[in-house]
Amino acid sequence: MEMNDNISNFGQMERTSRPQEMLQRTAHPQRNEQPVQQMMQQQQQQQAGGKKCPFCGAINEPEAMFCAQCGQPISKMTCPHCGAEIDPDADFCEVCHHYIRQDVCSFCGAHLSGNEAYCPECGSPKGGLVCPTCHSLNDFAFCKKCGTALTEEAKLMVKQLQKNPDYQQLLEIVQDFSKLENALPYSSERDIAREQNCQKLRERVLTLLAQDEGVDFPVIPKVESNRMTKEELEEQKAIKVKMLSAILDKLAVPPSASPVKARNYAMACKPTGVRLAWVCNYKHAMHSSPCGCAKPHLGGKWVVLGKNSTAEIKDDK
Ligand SMILES: [Zn+2]
Ligand SMILES: [Zn+2]
Ligand SMILES: [Zn+2]
Ligand SMILES: [Zn+2]
Ligand SMILES: [Zn+2]
């Protein structure tokens, strides 16, 4: 209805602004009618059972799972474990936390016929792999709990990443950051006095040792104190968090075709020693890792969580 109204309004506007053309049109009325008829046909098609894409508006075949125009999922499947509605491009149910694809290996992404107990490509058992580090059972190539690489492919990915300069820098920053997190700040005047006394003692001992060797006035290099006040520590930590976030942005998972590969890449990038959460492009949800996300292939990235962060994590446990 609305579409038809718009079209007739549009016609009026043209008629008033361009009278010469109007004369031509009245001479050939069928030319003007054609687009209107086409649109009405399209609307009828839609009513007859075609599926309208909620993303781009294109009309698709009634049984289409994905939009032929823009590729977005336009049908729902049901989870074989809990019956929840799931998009056809999801491989994991966020309601009951099960991997749901029978035809794709959850560890390597290889195609499966559905009956094999072990993946012919990577050899992983369909029932899952037990993490040798923390003993939790996993459906994916990296342990969702502790991040250990569980398959050969996963181990290789970590090895390759270690040659990536961005990843190397990430590890360095994480190391600095966790040092800061574990550092104790100067808490009192007494702390400062105690450290100064230590310095003096050190200088005295080194001077005596040097004099034993025959040097009368040795130059003793000062040791710079790396202890900071609470405020200085917080400031330094904030700087490191900024650097961390920048590098994690660089290592963000780009959209890709395979949820399994995207999940593996994201897990391989995760450093230990700092609290992180994974934010997906699918629902912009905070996951403890991409192992809890139904569509990691839409991309996402790791974000830093402070020590006392109360940010809500949509967990996969
Ligand atoms: Zn579409
Ligand atoms: Zn489910
Ligand atoms: Zn496999
Ligand atoms: Zn583990
Ligand atoms: Zn997600």
How would you describe the overall organization of this protein?
This protein is mainly alpha-helical. The chain is about 40% helix and about 10% strand. The chain contains eight helices and eleven strands. The strands form five sheets. It has a three-stranded antiparallel sheet with strand order 10-9-11. Strand 7 (about 130) and strand 8 form a beta hairpin. The chain is elongated. The chain binds zinc ion (5 copies). One zinc ion binds near residues 79, 81, 82 and 95.
Summary of the model, kept short:
This protein has 317 residues and is mainly α.
Throw out a few tags for this protein.
9% strand; 3-stranded antiparallel β-sheet; 8 helices; binds zinc ion; disordered N terminus; mainly alpha
Write the layout of secondary structure elements.
Elements: H1 2-17, H2 19-27, H3 29-47, E1 51-52, E2 59-60, E3 77-78, E4 85-86, E5 92-93, E6 98-99, E7 129-130, E8 137-138, H4 152-161, H5 165-182, H6 189-212, H7 230-250, H8 259-269, E9 276-280, E10 286-287, E11 300-304
Antiparallel strand pairs: 1-2, 3-4, 5-6, 7-8, 9-10, 9-11
Helix pairs in contact: 4-8, 5-7
Bound molecules: zinc ion (5 copies).
Morphology: elongated
Integer average pLDDT:
83
Relative helix content: 40-55%
Number of helices: 8
Radius of gyration: 32 Å
Task: Estimate the strand proportion.
Answer: 5-15%
Tell me about the largest β-sheet. Answer: 3 strands, antiparallel
Number of strands: 11
